[in-house]
Amino acid sequence: MKEKNRGLAVFTFLVFVFLLGPLLIISVTSFEGGSVLKFPIETFSFKWYENIFKVSMFLTTFKTSIIVSLAGNLLALLLGVPAAYALSRFNFKGKAVLNAVFISPILIPGIVLGFTFLRYIVTTYQLPIYAGLFIGHTIIMLPFVIRVVSSSLSTFDFSIEEAAHSLGASKIGTFIQVVLPNIKSGIIAAVMIAFLESFNNVDISVFMTGPGVSTFPIQMLTYVETYFDPTVAAISVLLMIITAFFMFIVERLMGLSYFTKR
Amino acid sequence: MKNRNIYLLLLPGVIFLTIFMVIPILLTIGSTFINEGSFSFDGYLHYFQDKYFIGILLTTLKVSLITTFICILLGFPVAYYISKVGTRTKVLLLLLSIFPLLTSSVVRSFSWMIIIGKNGVLNKLLLNIGLINEPLNILYTPTAIIIGLVHLFLPLIIITLVGVMENMDEDLLKAAESLGASRLGVFAKVVLPLSMPGLVIGSILVFVGSFTAYTTPALLGGKQRVISTFLYQNATTLNDWHTAAIVATIMIVVTLLVTITMNQIAYKINPKG
Q: Which family does it belong to (chain B) (predicted)?
């Protein structure tokens, strides 16, 4: 088994070079002193990091993205946590269908959702683009909230809840004082996964642009269409740092099995 | 708890999704069957005779199939290796697979523009070592899209397969070996069949993901249209919502068909999976 393992180890190493190499290269290019992206870099500087803060559209869209992701996240939790609780706690008629409805936003192609949101939420329902962004992002975050909270509820011992209830606590009181604290880490993980999903979203946001309104990833796409300087590389480094931070927190809260289970 | 109360918990979410997603999707699909006020299939007939559209559809299918195939070829051995190494290495390798998956697709596709561009890292390297005399034109071709998509989805199939392979009974492999099975035999008769459910689910995720991906083809594909960029172009720049709705419906149908059929296959192979 040994020499076969060595071959496999080399193969695995090369695959990881393919996966992480591009991210390493983009990180290095962000420190280029000149005005064109190149690898390896010729002079070292932080000036493209400074440039991020000089392009006002980056600041505006960053604020929009943060607000949309946080507000959408909150609504997705308000709609999703009770639903996840009902779906994992009880058996009832139509459960399979309702479960499918809540998961469906990840089954329908994102670009299709984006188009229908533009066509109906913005055009037919006549809601402003901001509302379209907010609603669209809430919808794509819902399945993640449902999935993470459900998986966290699946290990919760519901007899504790019944005990609290039989001791005289009200239904809602039990839920808030007994169930919620027990699935706290699941909810925090759900918030972080859903946040990344929403913050990085392109498929929905690309349809929801208007005069001065856009999200951060869309602004990045617009920028690289016109400029090939290292600004987006510098942004990439900052985004990767945030991503790594979120990943470690989710790993702490839920373990790696959350990611490998399908 | 009374049934009525259970539905009350689900109601807000269901109403929200119905108003903002289910109805818009149904209306979009419905609108494709209406032509000048009456029911007709003309829209579809028109597009399935249009060489340009068929070309885009076939390119997208081809790109997605090749991407899925490459992801399986690269992902399977890597997943097998990860499932066999010690815990600490396993955790590290899994984290290194998950990290790109959580990273913005704009960042990941953009990084390939620096690598496969005309003056990119790859061309510089190959020119320097004298392997080529002219820079390769990879960026803005279907090949570029495939490279970007493999990079995007390979971690997905790796972690899906690791999830299945981890549960594989080590004793079963040892038993097969001690009973005289060759390494290839163990692989073909034990490892492969037991990994099938993961392989099928991973392939669905990669294929559907590639078929519907927007960012990667938009950044790396240049003028080469795929079905999602074609939908976007019709919906926004061309303002042709009838065409966009037809393309959207085709995407939904293909996605659901692939997902349902493959899930059935996975279930047949391993009813417990």
A: Belongs to the binding-protein-dependent transport system permease family. CysTW subfamily.
